[in-house]
Amino acid sequence: MASSDVLFNNPFSIDDLLVFDQENLRSMLACSHSQISIQLLARGLHATSPALVQHIAASLSPEQQQQFQQELQYPLTGQETEQARKEILDRLFWELVYWKTPELYEELTEGERLHEGIFQSIQSDLAEKIVLDAGAGSGRASFECLRFGAARVYAVEPSPGLLHLLRKKVQTSDKDQRIQPLAGRFTRIPLPDQSVDTTISCSAFTALDDQGGEEGLAELRRVTKPDGKIIIIWPRTEDLDWFQAHDFHYVSMPIQGEMSVHFRSFECALHSARLFYGHNPAVMDYLQKVQKPEIPFSVIGMNPPRDYFWLAV
Ligand SMILES: C[S@@+](CC[C@H](N)C(=O)[O-])C[C@H]1O[C@@H](n2cnc3c(N)ncnc32)[C@H](O)[C@@H]1O
Questions:
Q1: Which residue among 47, 181, 205, 270 is least packed, with the fewest CB closer than 10 Å?
Q2: Matching PANTHER family, A to Z (predicted)?
Q3: Structural Rg of the chain based on CA atoms
């Protein structure tokens, strides 16, 4: 067994798949990068509750449903079922965090501070503007948009748990009423055509179909006014070519020294390291050595949140 398997502690169980709505399930299961085949799905759902089997089956096409029902009949050992469940839960780990334990995600983003220069550099696209924050999560970037003068921010997010956290945060301050949380996804933004000046998405929109892709970009263009901008903050490094091929311009902020994730406490850093970075033993080694609640992005093996792409619409 690899040392990363020993450390990584996926806290979810197969019944947690009940948390997803049909739209999210369809999108995740249809996307080739999730690599969840019908066979794997059926193996993982072997001997689970009829309610869960029905919930998952309802998100499949009639042909997939037929294959799924056939695969469910094959006898499996308990170990084979456990292995399939582990694969499914690891592949859906981040979606499960967003939907099932949004407060853990909130704890992580609190410490993952975005480079201040990003918002300074896009301030003219925010001040007095109507902004869409697509894939807003619990509002990390939405609140930054307000701080930099946005007149209104539509914060669109598919996870009900994160949306609930965002609504609670918005209700605590008069000023923050300028943020309007809305349920939606990249491919279904609940706003009229050409209704926002600037669309942003922070650590959310990617080239993958279930996280934006071609259809998502077309939808972001639809709601953005002509002469407006689409700004993708902290893109995935593997999408650089995709954004460039779609006429985006790249901006990266200079940094002095290292950027780090700053946790509330050392206990919180240990807990988050086990949960979010458990596949990388260097993170835990680092924490044990420094005994401080900060982890440099270079130790985590992630590009720091210092860059963005922008596109003139
Ligand atoms: C890494 S989090 C970033 C959240 C927030 N923008 C931030 O910076 O903290 C990714 C977010 O994208 C959302 N997301 C995933 N798939 C999505 C989709 N198809 N459409 C819109 N948002 C999506 C997730 O629910 C999650 O809130």
A1: 47
A2: METHYLTRANSFERASE, METHYLTRANSFERASE TYPE 11 DOMAIN-CONTAINING PROTEIN
A3: 20
pLDDT greater than 70 at residue 15? yes
CA pair distance 72, 53, nearest whole angstrom: 9
Q: Is 293 in the pocket of ligand 1 (CB under 6 A)?
A: no
Q: What angle do CA 136, 295, 105 make, to 5 degrees?
A: 30
Residue 141 near residue 115, CB atoms below 8 Å: no
* Domain end residue (candidates: 100, 134, 149): 100
Determine whether the shortest distance from the Cβ of 185 to ligand 1 is under 6 A. yes
Q: Is 204 in the pocket of ligand 1 (CB under 6 A)?
A: yes
Q: Does 117 lie in the same domain as 90?
A: no
Closest to 145 in 3D by CA, of 157, 154, 153: 153
Q: Residue 64's domain is classified under what CATH number?
A: 1.10.220.30
- Residue 140 CA to residue 270 CA, distance in Å, equals 22
d(CA 61, CA 209): 18
How many domains does the structure of the chain reveal?
3
With a cut of 50, say whether residue 3 has pLDDT above it: no
d(CA 113, CA 295): 12
Atom 2 of ligand 1, nearest CA residue: 204
**Rounded distance between C-alpha atoms, residue 81 and residue 44, angstroms:** 5
